[in-house]
Specification:
394 residues; alpha/beta; 9-stranded mixed beta sheet; 9 strands; binds iron/sulfur cluster
Length: 394
């Protein structure tokens, strides 16, 4: 996985095609939204806002932080075109989710444009998360025709040598830059995604300037979840203190730009935002902070889910809990009834300090990091330095 398919909560590759936040202290994170989005389905289940769909696991790159540990050869068991279309038919039953066509490298799926056009015909908004290296003039044109609204491209350093080292492919940076140019030529919006590690923390301003120079619609930073190939990157995972610093920096930095910035897979940014806004005397409301004000840090299983190339539904790409398979159970039933999803929606069952934190409802901690670093997804977020003021539940 070259991108950040696990956790693109809101703002996401699909977010905000409708313009810049303009003048507000923080950008709105929702496409063309005029007000807070609808939160509940008729039966009280949360609306599904975003689905990351791994349409294939095959990939042409071998990135160090790949969740999927993808390779170029085809993986057995991928949904057929008919099965994929049948799945698309069910998406509108759980809201009007934005569909992120991801991988692997989604462009390596032969019928990907057919599926996007089909989803579009059902009224769904479609975005794509290719790694950028395969995009040429022809494929950019096909994306545009199929109805892709935005592409996210992962860039982890402002210069080729560092980025290529991280991506495990010489020439990946230049290829992505060419891909971006083709997207621009075809009139497709793009955003850059950057995974935060100890290696690139000091390059952040340069990466941001690259986003501005390229004309990106948004810049999303992602906090590494150490699993898959990323387990080998343990030493590159930033500490809880560095995490706190980077998110505080991000809060300040947002005020200096009109570009849409989003801290993703960094649930406690929602705590920091509230702490800092209180200090600044700014009310945390939709007008001032867009979706960050009405949303939650970790949306896995709450407003977002991941569907694997074989149809397994998970809270996110980094949290490989089997919540059901769309080939056996209709997707809306999984969304409404999976016990894992019900757990994730119930703060009462969270353990450790996340279980008695006054910010639990707006943050939630990263459940995938809890799973991979603490042994269970309901345990406390390992990379949060906050000590809740509320007493632990008995
Ligand atoms: S569990 Fe972690 S990686 Fe997954 S959606 Fe939540 S914050 Fe993102
Ligand atoms: S303790 Fe848990 S819920 Fe509270 S801010 Fe930290 S990660 Fe979020």
């Amino acid at each position: 996985m070259h991108g950040h398919k696990g956790c693109p909560p809101e703002g996401h590759p699909g977010g905000h095609p409708g313009g810049k936040p303009g003048g507000r202290p923080h950008g709105k994170g929702h496409p063309g939204a005029d007000g807070p989005p609808k939160m509940k389905l008729e039966d009280g289940s949360p609306v599904c806002r975003l689905v990351a769909w791994e349409v294939t696991r095959s990939c042409n790159l071998a990135c160090k932080h790949c969740r999927a540990e993808a390779h170029p050869e085809p993986y057995p068991g991928e949904l057929s075109t008919e099965q994929a279309k049948a799945l698309i038919d069910t998406f509108p039953e759980v809201g009007n989710p934005i569909i992120i066509f991801t991988g692997g490298e989604p462009m390596m799926r032969h019928d990907v444009y057919e599926l996007i056009a089909y989803a579009k015909s059902k009224g769904l908004r479609c975005v794509m998360a290719p790694n950028g290296t395969l995009i040429d003039a022809e494929s950019a044109k096909r994306m545009k025709e199929a109805g892709v609204e935005r592409c996210s491209i992962s860039i982890d350093a402002p210069e080729a040598a560092q980025h290529d080292e991280f991506r495990g492919e010489k020439g990946a940076f230049e290829a992505s830059m060419r891909g971006i140019q083709h997207l621009k030529d075809a009139g497709i919006e793009f955003q850059l995604n950057t995974t935060v590690t100890k290696n690139n923390l000091h390059l952040f301003k340069d990466i941001f300037q690259l986003c501005e120079r390229l004309g990106a619609s948004a810049w999303h930073i992602f906090l590494l979840v150490p699993m898959g190939r990323a387990e080998e990157l343990g030493a590159e995972v930033i500490s809880a203190e560095e995490y706190e610093d980077v998110l505080n920096w991000f809060y300040d930095f947002q005020k200096t730009t009109n570009m849409q910035l989003k801290a993703t897979c960094a649930p406690h940014y929602h705590r920091i935002l509230r702490q800092r806004a209180k200090e600044d005397g700014i009310p945390v409301n939709f007008e001032n902070f867009g979706l960050d004000a009405v949303s939650r840090g970790c949306l896995g299983g709450v407003g977002f889910c991941f569907i694997s190339h074989r149809g397994q539904v998970q809270p996110c790409g980094y949290l490989e809990l089997d919540c059901g398979n769309v080939l056996k159970t209709p997707f809306p039933e999984i969304w409404r009834k999976s016990q894992h999803f019900l757990n994730l929606r119930n703060p009462e069952v969270y353990e450790g300090k996340c279980g008695h934190c006054e910010y639990e409802r707006v943050c939630g901690g990263c459940r995938a990091r809890a799973e991979s670093m603490k042994g269970h997804y309901l345990k406390e977020e390992p990379l949060c330095s906050y000590q809740p003021k509320k007493k632990p539940r008995k």
